[in-house]
Specification:
Radius of gyration of chain B: 20 Å
CATH superfamily of the largest domain in chain B: Acetamidase/Formamidase-like domains
Low-confidence stretches of chain B: 1-26
Shape of chain B: globular
Shape of chain A: globular
Largest sheet of chain B: 9 strands, mixed
Strand order of the largest sheet of chain A: 1-5-17-7-15-18-19-21-20
CATH class of the largest domain in chain A: Mainly Beta
CATH topology of the largest domain in chain A: Jelly Rolls
Helix content of chain A: 10-25%
CATH class of the largest domain in chain B: Mainly Beta
Mean pLDDT of chain A: 93
Number of domains of chain B: 2
Distance between the termini of chain A: 35 Å
Number of strands of chain A: 21
Largest interface: A-B, 69 and 65 residues
CATH architecture of the largest domain in chain A: Sandwich
CATH topology of the largest domain in chain B: Jelly Rolls
CATH superfamily of the largest domain in chain A: Acetamidase/Formamidase-like domains
Strand content of chain B: 25-35%
Structural class of chain A: alpha+beta
Order of helices and strands of chain A: HEEEEEHHEEEEEEEEEEEEEEHHEE
Oligomer: heterodimer
Number of strands of chain B: 24
Number of domains of chain A: 2
Structural class of chain B: mainly beta
Number of helices of chain A: 5
Radius of gyration of chain A: 20 Å
Number of helices of chain B: 4
Mean pLDDT of chain B: 89
Strand order of the largest sheet of chain B: 3-6-20-8-17-21-22-24-23
Strand content of chain A: 25-35%
């Protein structure tokens, strides 16, 4: 009955009948989304770690999100948008409300990404790298939102007024219902995954622009089954994550993916002495390199240089061989153009390496 | 190369809505073959005043040999082949050498233009639909080059270089090294319509946001359709710059440059009015943005995506914008042709209520 009334109400939204699937993978630790575990809008080198782990540990981290109600009443907003849950019936939303209310803020940063952390990785020192295997990412709420506002995003000069769209998520079918005729395949990922930035970035580095430490990479490839490598800048690495996305296109042009609340299971490995100048990633099918800069041309330049470094390291190539291969076999894509520091990533297909055997940890299910 | 497989006796052009019904035989036999004629080859520019090399009717198909002459010197074009242990007896090699010699000193580019082709009935304001029916490698080898001051990292290149790769056309791969094979996906770097007479001679190196040109878009392979806005009577279509494979970005300034034989079918579309190039593949719609600044190129590509979604799917601005953010992928086309390119890949699979899309090509 509830479903029918929702359909009548919203006109186009098709809500999933089944409840959101609970996480069933086991993890060594669980970090719930609480005001103590959360931090909003910045990375702090001094916040007390929510957890201290050894290399190899798996951690389930709950994220928050979905709070498009702004200053208004959450339940009224949910009802108005035909979302078939309330703050009382949806734990992730209740946690989000509580975090927004109780998490301490600092002067100048009152809003921003809902982050969780830091997680302290034992023995990690500046000059090392941590490997983050993304074992699972699953939305915790039955919807996501995408919006646009004048003055932000890639078309900030054209967008005439603020706009929000609520997208029901059907996890059984792995689809977001955009409208009657359009469905978005879901690829849940965390927009923000980062080590705590170096002191040179300032004491409370805002989480908006990504950097060498990762952070708000907004890279749609970082779904379950992918691996992210990040350089360490602080003792213990101090890993943060947040900014739950259900799906996104390369570019993230309005400044929004399908913004939702995810729970993720991550496994951390410490690599002593693995020196990285920028994040790198790996999927079952590709190696990824990143170029980050406020200017997209420069981001492209950096992404090419990172790609050459990767190919030189992997294959022992000289400059020319790496450069040639980057031109004819590597795809450069726009990661995002909306986070002040923009991103380009290189997609290096594994299949071109005919003699490599596949030891990657994840197999597509 | 297998011939494109057509399903059914009729193929409809319903892709851009309200298109005419077109009847095609089970396999397309080209109506014309356009050979390389060094005497009639425009030297590196597009112009409304260049006389057509061929006149065709809408619906007709033309097979065109396009040559990549990169790496060949004017005074001794044979040297390239002997240096790289490529037989001088191959008919395609003989052709390349004779054309290079004929073009020597004429200022023609290393990828000479074929065209213009006059398509009867095409008027300014119409759209030229170009179906890429087939593209085959014309030679079993290709070359990639880079030069200081050019490409995606012009400040870093220490000296000019050239790398020659041999192809396994059975496996459709290029041998990059003992441990690396590059899958071949042949396409034409250049496809353009003539500019208006007022614009004079437009150099063929950069792509243009209206007439197309050196787009270097790796998705324009066999089975793809390119739509170009007609500027002059007869359209004046050019094709050149054959590639065997390329990554998005084309960062070294070149792809695997390699001669192709391309079969194209042309339709004059009176019902379509475009401002710039668009494309369609069996799986995606493609919108494009061009600018010397990559930030501006992304901006244009997004605006053109929204226009495309409005035209093809009847979406309003906000829905098209948010769909572009959550469901459309923006890729770097190239950053090496002075004017850079970004293209949007719009998956057809997003539109689940569509009747099975009656696209002309099936994979």
């Amino acid at each position: 009955m509830k479903i029918i009334s929702v359909l009548l109400f919203s006109g186009l939204a098709v809500w999933p009948v089944a409840p959101i699937a609970a996480m069933e993978l086991a993890a060594d630790f669980h970090v719930p989304f609480t005001p103590e575990n959360a931090i909003i809008g910045y990375f702090s080198p001094t916040k007390k770690p929510v957890l201290s782990i050894k290399s190899g540990a798996t951690v389930r981290i709950d994220g928050g999100g979905g709070q498009r109600w702004g200053e208004g009443d959450p339940n009224a907003w949910l009802k108005e948008n035909g979302v078939p849950v309330t703050i009382e019936t949806c734990a992730a939303l209740a946690e989000t409300v509580r975090v927004l209310k109780e998490t301490p803020r600092i002067e100048g940063i009152t809003m921003g990404h809902l982050l969780v952390g830091p997680i302290y990785v034992e023995d990690a020192e500046p000059g090392d790298a941590i490997e983050i295997r993304i074992l699972d990412v699953t939305p915790r709420i039955p919807y996501g939102t995408v919006g646009a506002r004048p003055g932000t995003g890639a078309l900030g000069d054209i967008v005439p007024r603020p706009y929000t769209k609520v997208i029901p998520l059907d996890l059984k079918r792995n689809a977001g219902t955009f409208d009657d005729g359009v469905e978005i395949p879901l690829g849940p990922f965390m927009g923000v995954m980062g080590t705590c930035p170096a002191d040179s970035e300032g004491p409370n580095r805002k989480s908006g622009p990504p950097g060498p430490f990762g952070g708000n990479l907004d890279c749609k490839e970082l779904v379950a089954g992918s691996t992210l490598f990040l350089p360490v800048f602080q003792k213990g690495a101090l890993f943060y994550t947040g900014d739950s996305h259900a799906a996104q296109g390369d570019g993230e042009i309005t400044v929004n993916a399908i913004e939702t609340a995810n729970t993720c299971i991550l496994q951390f490995f410490l690599h002593k002495g693995m020196k990285l100048t920028a994040p790198r990633a790996e999927t079952p099918t590709h190696y990824l390199t990143f170029g980050l800069d406020p200017d997209l041309d420069k981001a492209m330049h950096l992404a090419i240089m990172e790609t050459l470094d990767f190919l030189k390291e992997k294959q022992g190539y000289d400059f020319f061989k790496a450069y040639t291969l980057a031109s004819i076999g590597v795809d450069f894509r726009v990661t995002q153009v909306v986070d002040k520091t923009q991103g380009i990533h290189g997609m290096i297909p594994k299949k071109i390496f005919t003699k490599d055997s596949d030891h990657y940890w994840y197999r597509a299910r | 190369m297998p011939t494109p497989r057509f399903t059914g006796a009729f193929l409809t052009l319903a892709v851009w809505a309200s298109g005419p019904l077109i009847e095609l035989p089970a396999a397309v036999k080209p109506d014309y073959h356009l050979d390389i004629d060094p005497e009639r080859m425009p030297a590196g520019y597009y112009s409304a005043e260049t006389p057509p090399v061929l006149k065709i009717a809408s619906g007709q198909t033309v097979e065109i040999d396009t040559l990549a002459l990169m790496g060949l010197s004017d005074d001794n074009p044979e040297k390239f082949f002997t240096d790289n242990t490529i037989s001088l007896d191959l008919p395609s090699v003989k052709k390349m050498i004779s054309v290079k010699k004929a073009l020597a000193g004429k200022g023609a580019s290393s990828a000479p233009l074929a065209g213009p082709i006059y398509v009867e009935g095409a008027q300014p304001g119409d759209t030229l639909e170009v179906r890429i029916v087939d593209i085959k490698s014309y030679t079993p080898f290709g070359i990639n080059v880079g030069n200081p001051g050019k490409g995606g990292i012009p400040d870093v290149i220490p000296r000019p270089y050239a790398k020659v790769m041999k192809f396994d056309l059975q496996k459709n791969t290029a041998k990059f090294s003992d441990t690396i094979d590059i899958p071949l996906r042949q396409f034409q770097g250049i496809m353009a319509v003539s500019p208006t007479k007022e614009r004079g001679k437009l150099p063929s190196r950069p792509p243009y946001p209206d007439i197309g040109g050196n787009m270097d878009n790796k998705h324009l392979v066999k089975g793809t359709t390119l739509f170009l806005p007609v500027q002059i009577e007869g359209a004046g279509f050019y094709v050149a710059d054959p590639h065997a494979a390329q990554g998005n970005g084309e960062v070294s300034q070149s792809a695997i440059e390699s001669s192709n034989t391309v079969t194209l079918q042309f339709f004059v579309r009176k019902d379509l009015h475009l401002k710039g190039p668009r494309a369609e593949t069996p799986t995606h719609y493609i919108a494009m943005g061009f600018d010397e600044d990559l930030d501006a190129a992304v901006h244009h590509a997004i605006v053109n995506t929204i226009e495309l979604l409005k035209d093809v799917k009847g979406m309003n601005f906000f829905d098209a914008l948010s769909l572009s953010s959550v469901g459309v992928d923006y890729e770097v086309t190239e950053v090496v042709d002075v004017t850079k390119g970004v293209h949007a890949m719009i998956p057809k699979s997003l539109f689940h209520d569509d009747k099975p899309a009656p696209y002309w090509y099936k994979e």
